[in-house]
């Protein structure tokens, strides 16, 4: 396939073209009046072509608004684009097709797809895009707006299958790494839309959830994983506190503990620190001998 790249079309100020149009109309009127007054029809060979030129000349006038382009096509051949806002004149036989250069949003529908672990999830995204090459948008793809929509959804599906919905902290996931996922999505969408002369300004997930059929089960799983992670953190903290307590007792020589007493102390401290219920201290006041 031959790729068409945007070029600048030849143009003229529309105001100058309007003056030329009025001049042509005046010349036509004067020539018709002169032939009628002097009964000289021999000038028809001049008047007829001049009248045709006068009728066709205004067809080259067109207006370009800010952030839009006009793509000029002459008898099936691309002859350039006009991006400058204003009132312009170009070849009257050229077709002047409008292309918006404004920034636009594409809001995808909720797509059901399997993540890396095979879990069905619902995902949707917002893609911010803009046409940067009007020629490629019109001639390299068919209906570039539909092309943007389809390719964006394809990139979203591909991205969702590369990551798990949720994972451990050190493993990238759709839920835990939003900035990384957004950058990855923008790169994938841009790679697919490059051929259409479209630049992707931003791409972010707008909706992410487990599919309804497994949502409750995965919620319980997440709760269980959260409880296990919390328990692990509590145990790690308790072990550190017990180790620090034993070292401080030993360094400051507050009390001498043999291995059995250390084991008892560790057991008591771990129970007090890890237990969910509030610890009830028992004060030992000594041993009563009779």
Secondary structure elements and their pairing?
Elements: E1 12-13, H1 14-38, H2 44-56, E2 61-64, E3 68-74, E4 77-82, E5 86-89, E6 95-100, E7 104-107, E8 111-114, E9 120-131, H3 134-139, H4 144-160, H5 178-193, E10 198-210, H6 212-251, H7 259-274
Antiparallel strand pairs: 1-5, 2-5, 3-4, 3-6, 7-9, 8-9, 9-10
Helix pairs in contact: 1-2, 4-5, 6-7
What does this structure look like?
The chain is of the alpha+beta class. Strands 7, 8, 9 and 10 form a 4-stranded antiparallel β-sheet that branches. 46% of the residues lie in helices and 21% in strands. It contains 7 helices and 10 strands. The chain has 3 domains: 12-99, no CATH class; 104-210, Band 7 domain (Tetrahydropterin Synthase, Chain A); 215-274. The N and C termini lie far apart (107 Å). The chain has helices spanning 14-38, 44-56, 134-139, 144-160, 178-193, 212-251, 259-274, and strands spanning 12-13, 61-64, 68-74, 77-82, 86-89, 95-100, 104-107, 111-114, 120-131, 198-210. Strand 8 (111-114) and strand 9 (120-131) form a beta hairpin.
Named at the architecture level, the CATH assignment of the largest domain is 2-Layer Sandwich
Classify the helix fraction into a percent range.
40-55%
Which parts are unreliable, with pLDDT below 50 for 5 consecutive residues or more?
A: none
- Report the portion of residues in β strands: 15-25%
Radius of gyration: 39 Å
Major sheet characteristics: 4 strands, antiparallel
Query: How many angstroms does the end-to-end distance come to?
Result: 107 Å
Topology as H/E string?
EHHEEEEEEEEHHHEHH
CATH topology of the largest domain: Tetrahydropterin Synthase, Chain A
Number of discrete helical segments:
7
């Amino acid at each position: 396939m031959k790729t068409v790249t945007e070029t600048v079309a030849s143009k003229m100020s529309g105001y100058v073209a309007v003056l030329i149009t009025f001049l042509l109309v005046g010349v036509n009127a004067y020539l018709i009046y002169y032939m009628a007054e002097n009964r000289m029809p021999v000038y028809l060979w001049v008047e007829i072509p001049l009248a045709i030129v006068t009728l066709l000349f205004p067809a080259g006038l067109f207006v370009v608004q800010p952030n839009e382009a006009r793509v000029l096509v002459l008898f099936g051949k691309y002859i350039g684009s006009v991006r400058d806002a204003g009132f312009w004149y170009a070849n009257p036989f050229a077709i002047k097709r409008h292309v918006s250069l404004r920034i636009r949003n594409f809001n995808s529908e909720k797509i059901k797809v399997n993540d890396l672990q095979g879990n069905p999830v619902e995902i949707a995204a917002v893609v911010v895009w803009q046409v940067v090459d009007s020629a490629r948008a019109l001639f390299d793809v068919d209906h570039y707006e539909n092309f943007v929509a389809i390719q964006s959804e394809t990139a979203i599906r591909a991205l969702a299958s590369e990551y798990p919905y949720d994972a451990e902290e050190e493993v990238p996931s759709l839920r835990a790494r939003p900035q990384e996922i957004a950058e990855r999505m923008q790169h994938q969408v841009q790679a697919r839309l490059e051929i259409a002369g479209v630049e992707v300004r931003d791409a972010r997930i707008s909706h992410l959830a487990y599919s309804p059929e497994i949502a409750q089960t995965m919620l319980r799983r997440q709760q269980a994983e959260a409880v296990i992670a919390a328990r692990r953190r509590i145990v790690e903290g308790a072990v550190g506190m017990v180790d620090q307590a034993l070292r401080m007792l030993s360094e400051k020589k507050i009390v001498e503990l043999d291995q059995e007493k250390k084991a008892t102390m560790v057991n008591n401290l771990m129970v007090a620190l890890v237990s969910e219920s509030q610890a009830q201290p028992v004060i030992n006041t000594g041993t009563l001998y009779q």
